[in-house]
Amino acid sequence: MTTALLEIQGLSVQYGRNMALKDFSLRVGAGQLIAVLGANGAGKSSLLKTIAGLVRPASGSLALEGRDLHRASASERVARGIALVPEGRWILVSMSVHENLLMGAWCRKGAVPAGELEAIYARFPNLASRRHMPAAVLSGGEQQMLAIGRALLSRPRLLLLDEPSLGLSPLLVQQLFTLIRDLNQEGLSMILVEQNIRKALQVAHRVHVLELGREVAHGEPQSLMASSALHEAYLGRARPAP
Predict the structure, then answer these.
(1) Sheet holding 33-37, edge to edge
(2) Half-sphere exposure (CA, 13 Å, Cβ side) for 212?
(3) Mean pLDDT per 10-residue interval, the chain, length 242 residues
(4) What is the pTM of this model?
(5) End-to-end CA distance of the chain
(6) I need a surface site. Which of 10, 89, 147, 155 has the fewest CB within 10 A?
Protein backbone atom coordinates (compact mmCIF):
# COMPACT_ATOMS: atom_id res chain seq x y z
CA MET A 1 0.00 0.00 0.00
CA THR A 2 1.35 3.44 -0.91
CA THR A 3 2.00 6.01 1.81
CA ALA A 4 -1.12 8.00 2.62
CA LEU A 5 -1.13 11.76 2.59
CA LEU A 6 -2.61 11.63 6.10
CA GLU A 7 -2.70 8.55 8.33
CA ILE A 8 -4.52 8.52 11.69
CA GLN A 9 -4.38 5.50 13.97
CA GLY A 10 -6.24 4.96 17.24
CA LEU A 11 -6.85 8.66 17.88
CA SER A 12 -8.54 9.64 21.14
CA VAL A 13 -9.33 13.20 22.25
CA GLN A 14 -10.39 14.08 25.77
CA TYR A 15 -11.55 17.30 27.46
CA GLY A 16 -11.26 16.77 31.20
CA ARG A 17 -13.34 13.67 31.92
CA ASN A 18 -15.25 13.92 28.64
CA MET A 19 -14.07 11.71 25.78
CA ALA A 20 -14.71 13.60 22.53
CA LEU A 21 -13.15 11.00 20.23
CA LYS A 22 -12.28 7.37 20.97
CA ASP A 23 -9.88 5.11 19.07
CA PHE A 24 -10.56 6.64 15.65
CA SER A 25 -8.57 5.76 12.52
CA LEU A 26 -8.66 7.40 9.09
CA ARG A 27 -6.59 7.39 5.93
CA VAL A 28 -6.57 10.15 3.28
CA GLY A 29 -4.93 9.36 -0.03
CA ALA A 30 -3.63 11.97 -2.46
CA GLY A 31 -6.56 13.69 -4.18
CA GLN A 32 -9.19 12.05 -1.94
CA LEU A 33 -12.15 13.79 -0.35
CA ILE A 34 -13.16 12.14 2.93
CA ALA A 35 -16.45 13.12 4.59
CA VAL A 36 -16.88 12.78 8.35
CA LEU A 37 -20.54 12.81 9.33
CA GLY A 38 -22.53 12.63 12.54
CA ALA A 39 -24.84 14.59 14.82
CA ASN A 40 -23.75 17.49 17.01
CA GLY A 41 -21.36 16.31 19.69
CA ALA A 42 -20.16 13.34 17.66
CA GLY A 43 -16.52 14.49 17.77
CA LYS A 44 -16.18 15.80 14.22
CA SER A 45 -14.81 19.26 15.03
CA SER A 46 -12.49 17.78 17.65
CA LEU A 47 -11.05 15.57 14.93
CA LEU A 48 -10.30 18.51 12.63
CA LYS A 49 -8.87 20.65 15.43
CA THR A 50 -6.58 17.79 16.43
CA ILE A 51 -5.33 17.34 12.87
CA ALA A 52 -4.73 21.10 12.65
CA GLY A 53 -2.77 21.08 15.92
CA LEU A 54 -5.23 23.16 17.93
CA VAL A 55 -6.03 20.25 20.27
CA ARG A 56 -3.57 17.72 21.65
CA PRO A 57 -4.77 14.10 21.50
CA ALA A 58 -4.91 11.88 24.56
CA SER A 59 -3.54 8.97 22.52
CA GLY A 60 -3.03 7.73 18.99
CA SER A 61 -0.84 8.79 16.08
CA LEU A 62 -1.05 11.22 13.17
CA ALA A 63 1.35 11.25 10.24
CA LEU A 64 1.55 13.42 7.12
CA GLU A 65 3.21 11.50 4.27
CA GLY A 66 4.74 9.15 6.81
CA ARG A 67 6.17 11.93 9.02
CA ASP A 68 4.86 12.08 12.57
CA LEU A 69 2.79 15.16 13.44
CA HIS A 70 2.72 14.66 17.21
CA ARG A 71 5.29 17.34 18.04
CA ALA A 72 4.38 19.72 15.21
CA SER A 73 2.73 22.98 16.28
CA ALA A 74 -0.32 24.40 14.52
CA SER A 75 1.87 26.84 12.55
CA GLU A 76 4.25 24.05 11.55
CA ARG A 77 1.34 22.00 10.27
CA VAL A 78 0.19 24.93 8.13
CA ALA A 79 3.71 25.19 6.73
CA ARG A 80 3.64 21.44 5.99
CA GLY A 81 0.41 21.80 4.01
CA ILE A 82 -2.57 21.45 6.37
CA ALA A 83 -5.15 24.26 6.34
CA LEU A 84 -8.33 24.49 8.41
CA VAL A 85 -11.44 26.41 7.39
CA PRO A 86 -13.11 26.53 10.81
CA GLU A 87 -16.77 26.46 11.68
CA GLY A 88 -17.87 30.07 12.03
CA ARG A 89 -15.22 31.22 9.50
CA TRP A 90 -13.17 33.30 11.99
CA ILE A 91 -13.05 36.28 9.65
CA LEU A 92 -11.37 39.43 11.00
CA VAL A 93 -14.25 41.79 10.27
CA SER A 94 -12.35 45.01 11.06
CA MET A 95 -9.75 44.21 8.39
CA SER A 96 -10.26 44.49 4.64
CA VAL A 97 -11.07 41.52 2.44
CA HIS A 98 -7.58 41.76 0.95
CA GLU A 99 -5.92 41.83 4.36
CA ASN A 100 -7.93 38.78 5.44
CA LEU A 101 -6.74 36.90 2.38
CA LEU A 102 -3.12 37.78 3.07
CA MET A 103 -3.46 36.29 6.56
CA GLY A 104 -3.59 32.91 4.84
CA ALA A 105 -0.04 33.40 3.58
CA TRP A 106 1.51 34.49 6.88
CA CYS A 107 3.56 31.29 7.19
CA ARG A 108 5.06 31.63 3.73
CA LYS A 109 8.39 33.29 3.02
CA GLY A 110 8.43 36.39 0.84
CA ALA A 111 5.63 38.35 -0.77
CA VAL A 112 2.62 36.63 -2.29
CA PRO A 113 2.90 36.78 -6.09
CA ALA A 114 0.32 39.13 -7.58
CA GLY A 115 -0.76 36.43 -10.02
CA GLU A 116 -1.61 34.09 -7.16
CA LEU A 117 -3.81 36.68 -5.51
CA GLU A 118 -5.51 37.47 -8.80
CA ALA A 119 -6.22 33.77 -9.28
CA ILE A 120 -8.05 33.78 -5.93
CA TYR A 121 -10.03 36.84 -6.96
CA ALA A 122 -10.84 35.25 -10.31
CA ARG A 123 -12.25 32.24 -8.46
CA PHE A 124 -14.23 34.49 -6.09
CA PRO A 125 -15.35 37.56 -8.12
CA ASN A 126 -17.54 38.89 -5.29
CA LEU A 127 -14.42 39.21 -3.17
CA ALA A 128 -12.56 40.96 -5.99
CA SER A 129 -15.13 43.74 -6.17
CA ARG A 130 -14.90 44.26 -2.39
CA ARG A 131 -11.20 43.69 -1.87
CA HIS A 132 -10.59 47.04 -0.17
CA MET A 133 -13.77 47.00 1.93
CA PRO A 134 -13.98 45.78 5.54
CA ALA A 135 -14.85 42.09 5.70
CA ALA A 136 -17.83 43.10 7.88
CA VAL A 137 -19.74 44.14 4.73
CA LEU A 138 -19.69 40.61 3.31
CA SER A 139 -22.68 38.30 3.42
CA GLY A 140 -22.42 34.95 5.17
CA GLY A 141 -21.74 33.18 1.90
CA GLU A 142 -19.09 35.69 0.90
CA GLN A 143 -17.42 35.32 4.29
CA GLN A 144 -17.29 31.55 3.75
CA MET A 145 -15.64 32.08 0.37
CA LEU A 146 -13.18 34.46 2.01
CA ALA A 147 -12.32 31.84 4.62
CA ILE A 148 -11.70 29.27 1.89
CA GLY A 149 -9.69 31.73 -0.20
CA ARG A 150 -7.59 32.58 2.85
CA ALA A 151 -6.86 28.89 3.40
CA LEU A 152 -5.94 28.40 -0.26
CA LEU A 153 -3.28 31.11 0.01
CA SER A 154 -1.38 28.88 2.44
CA ARG A 155 -0.93 26.46 -0.49
CA PRO A 156 -2.46 23.48 1.31
CA ARG A 157 -2.11 19.85 0.33
CA LEU A 158 -4.87 18.91 2.78
CA LEU A 159 -7.86 21.21 3.32
CA LEU A 160 -10.01 20.69 6.43
CA LEU A 161 -13.55 22.05 6.07
CA ASP A 162 -15.67 22.30 9.22
CA GLU A 163 -19.40 22.74 8.49
CA PRO A 164 -18.87 25.04 5.48
CA SER A 165 -22.55 25.18 4.47
CA LEU A 166 -23.83 26.14 7.93
CA GLY A 167 -26.23 29.09 7.72
CA LEU A 168 -26.10 29.44 3.94
CA SER A 169 -29.06 29.67 1.57
CA PRO A 170 -29.79 26.71 -0.74
CA LEU A 171 -28.34 28.61 -3.73
CA LEU A 172 -25.11 29.39 -1.87
CA VAL A 173 -24.88 25.80 -0.66
CA GLN A 174 -25.02 24.65 -4.28
CA GLN A 175 -22.29 27.12 -5.25
CA LEU A 176 -20.17 26.05 -2.28
CA PHE A 177 -20.31 22.37 -3.16
CA THR A 178 -19.53 23.12 -6.80
CA LEU A 179 -16.40 24.89 -5.52
CA ILE A 180 -15.52 21.95 -3.24
CA ARG A 181 -15.89 19.51 -6.12
CA ASP A 182 -13.78 21.72 -8.42
CA LEU A 183 -10.97 22.08 -5.87
CA ASN A 184 -10.91 18.34 -5.29
CA GLN A 185 -10.88 17.57 -9.01
CA GLU A 186 -7.89 19.91 -9.29
CA GLY A 187 -6.06 17.52 -6.94
CA LEU A 188 -6.60 19.06 -3.50
CA SER A 189 -7.16 16.47 -0.77
CA MET A 190 -9.89 17.27 1.76
CA ILE A 191 -11.59 16.19 4.94
CA LEU A 192 -15.14 17.53 5.00
CA VAL A 193 -17.25 17.77 8.17
CA GLU A 194 -20.76 18.60 7.08
CA GLN A 195 -24.38 18.44 8.32
CA ASN A 196 -25.78 18.42 4.79
CA ILE A 197 -25.58 14.64 4.35
CA ARG A 198 -26.88 14.53 0.79
CA LYS A 199 -24.39 17.08 -0.50
CA ALA A 200 -21.49 15.49 1.38
CA LEU A 201 -22.26 12.06 -0.04
CA GLN A 202 -22.33 13.50 -3.55
CA VAL A 203 -18.73 14.76 -3.39
CA ALA A 204 -17.00 12.28 -1.05
CA HIS A 205 -14.86 9.31 -2.05
CA ARG A 206 -15.19 7.71 1.38
CA VAL A 207 -17.29 8.43 4.46
CA HIS A 208 -16.77 7.94 8.20
CA VAL A 209 -19.78 8.17 10.54
CA LEU A 210 -19.29 9.16 14.17
CA GLU A 211 -21.62 8.97 17.13
CA LEU A 212 -20.63 10.14 20.60
CA GLY A 213 -16.96 10.05 19.68
CA ARG A 214 -16.89 6.55 18.22
CA GLU A 215 -17.01 5.42 14.63
CA VAL A 216 -20.19 3.49 13.89
CA ALA A 217 -19.76 3.05 10.11
CA HIS A 218 -17.41 3.78 7.25
CA GLY A 219 -17.26 3.02 3.56
CA GLU A 220 -18.09 4.38 0.14
CA PRO A 221 -21.00 6.83 -0.13
CA GLN A 222 -23.13 4.43 -2.18
CA SER A 223 -22.95 1.69 0.43
CA LEU A 224 -23.81 4.05 3.28
CA MET A 225 -26.77 5.47 1.39
CA ALA A 226 -28.30 2.01 1.39
CA SER A 227 -27.59 1.32 5.08
CA SER A 228 -29.28 2.53 8.25
CA ALA A 229 -26.02 3.68 9.87
CA LEU A 230 -26.35 7.35 8.98
CA HIS A 231 -30.02 7.55 9.94
CA GLU A 232 -29.42 5.85 13.28
CA ALA A 233 -26.38 7.95 14.10
CA TYR A 234 -28.22 11.23 13.50
CA LEU A 235 -31.17 10.06 15.57
CA GLY A 236 -28.83 8.88 18.32
CA ARG A 237 -30.04 5.27 18.23
CA ALA A 238 -26.87 3.62 17.01
CA ARG A 239 -24.70 2.33 19.82
CA PRO A 240 -21.05 1.37 19.26
CA ALA A 241 -19.76 -1.86 20.67
CA PRO A 242 -18.17 -1.50 24.12
Answers:
(1) 82-85, 158-162, 189-193, 33-37, 206-211, 214-219
(2) 11
(3) 86 93 96 94 94 95 94 94 90 90 81 84 92 92 92 95 91 93 96 93 94 92 77 56 38
(4) 0.90
(5) 30
(6) 10
